[in-house]
Amino acid sequence: MAVLGIALIATSEKVGNTMALRTMDHLMQWGSNTVKQAVPLALALLNLSNPNINIQDLLSKMAH
Q1: Residue ranges of the domains in the chain?
Q2: pTM of this structure
């Protein structure tokens, strides 16, 4: 729930979005398996109305 909370709070501002992306990167490296499973959903929530090619590529790599 905390991972999704980070994404929901940071969606409205550019600086928050950048910092949340950095946090998601750290969570993917050091988080537990359940946290790693929530990160792709959080990344999708961060860029829901503002599609970013880099994030789409990252999400497709995580899916495969």
Answers
A1: 2-63
A2: 0.80
